[in-house]
């Protein structure tokens, strides 16, 4: 078995660590933070991400027991700049869980599988560094902060009291597009529910090169909270609001650098976030699993682990990122978003099902063009 160092114990690193430890490898996870720790994110878990969590010992029953009160997503909603809505049932359901809880659970699963967790700030992940001489494989899972980000998000939490206007939103995830920021969107996701209160994650995301004076991501969030009809519906019932936090995002492009001088890069460190929705957790977990499989095969066969990981990425992740990028490019203009939402709202139900399944992570983007459609691709 191999000795493996993983730098970064977020979703991709913890997932890779658990998969590798269960194979019998000696895995050391390095992270600068103690867990649990807050992590700024949208907190949305797609069905694809939930499938990966199940493979890590965190199925829906485990999540219900370990994170009581988290939101269960039964509906997905797309809102166009002109206010038209396209709504569809989420099948299977998604979830929303604060990253503070999710990341701690993943690290715990990795440690339970046999990983050694070391709290340390690592500034350089380079095979030539003597620090890594004792490890046969080195994985960079440091997240978006370790590479050049191309997008930025900012979010706040609103706690609201129970009221028909707020409870009605407790099981839906909604993406709101905007005419002012053509490649950005706002979101309103339920996160926690108890007998008296609900908590919503409300935020916006924006490509960095679209930011300009008077139209930064912070300006975008202020405008969104003031003018969005759903935010205005929640506002009278608000009991509290957290400080607004920004965070970098590395959206997937046409190509990703998943190997760097023998170092395997996974998750946000490899730029694997969905370029249409900004979701990074699903691909982070998938990349951790695939990189672990590559190392396992390399250990058994003597093949090059980096080449095997590169091939798995090219076959299973890159095509989906490219499909998402193409779809995003088709939907840049305000006219295109308005027209697409109108077609979804009025058009054939099977097209609405396909697009919602792809965007909200019930099925791969490839299902949009598959003759089998969502029925053949949707997750069980």
TrEMBL record:
Tell me which InterPro entries the record gives: FAD-bd, FAD/NAD-bd_sf, Geranylgeranyl_reductase
Q: What does the organism's lineage look like at the top?
A: Bacteria, Pseudomonadati, Pseudomonadota, Betaproteobacteria, Burkholderiales
Provide any one GO MF term from the record.
Answer: FAD binding
Q: What is the organism field in this record?
A: Sphaerotilus mobilis
In Swiss-Prot or TrEMBL terms, this protein is called Flavin-dependent dehydrogenase
* Domain FAD-binding, first and last residues per copy: 4-120
């Amino acid at each position: 078995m191999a000795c493996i160092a993983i730098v970064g114990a977020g979703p991709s690193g913890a997932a890779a660590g658990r998969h590798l430890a269960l194979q019998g490898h000696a895995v050391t996870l390095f992270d600068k933070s103690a867990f649990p720790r807050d992590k700024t994110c949208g907190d949305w878990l797609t069905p694809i991400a939930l499938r990966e969590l199940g493979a890590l010992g965190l199925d829906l029953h485990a999540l219900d027991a370990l994170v009581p009160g988290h939101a269960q997503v039964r509906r997905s909603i797309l809102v166009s700049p002109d206010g038209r809505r396209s709504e569809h049932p989420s099948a299977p359901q998604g979830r929303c869980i604060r990253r503070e809880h999710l990341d701690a659970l993943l690290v715990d699963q990795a440690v339970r599988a046999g990983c050694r967790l070391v709290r340390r700030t690592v500034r350089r992940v380079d095979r030539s560094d003597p620090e890594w001489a004792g490890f046969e494989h080195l994985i960079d899972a440091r997240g978006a902060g370790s590479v050049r980000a191309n997008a930025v998000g900012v979010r706040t939490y609103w706690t609201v009291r129970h009221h028909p206007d707020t409870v009605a939103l407790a099981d839906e995830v909604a993406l709101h597009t905007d005419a002012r920021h053509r490649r950005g969107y706002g979101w309103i996701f339920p996160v926690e529910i108890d007998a008296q209160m609900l908590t919503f994650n409300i935020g916006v995301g924006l490509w960095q090169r679209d930011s300009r004076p008077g139209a930064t991501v912070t300006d975008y969030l202020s405008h969104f909270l003031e003018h969005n009809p759903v935010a205005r519906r929640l506002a009278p019932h608000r009991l509290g609001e957290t400080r607004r936090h920004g965070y970098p995002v590395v959206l997937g492009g046409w190509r990703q650098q998943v190997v760097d001088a023998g170092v395997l890069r996974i998750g946000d460190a490899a730029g694997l976030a969905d370029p249409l929705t900004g979701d990074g957790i699903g691909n982070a977990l998938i990349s951790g699993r695939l990189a672990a499989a590559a190392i396992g095969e390399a250990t058994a066969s003597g093949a090059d682990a980096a080449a095997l990981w590169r091939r798995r990425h090219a076959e299973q992740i890159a095509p989906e990122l490219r499909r998402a990028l193409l779809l995003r490019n088709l939907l840049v203009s305000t006219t295109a978003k308005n027209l697409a939402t109108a077609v979804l709202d009025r058009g054939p139900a099977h097209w609405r099902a396909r697009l919602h399944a792809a965007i909200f992570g019930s099925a791969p983007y490839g299902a949009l063009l598959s003759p089998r459609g969502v029925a053949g691709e949707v997750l069980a």
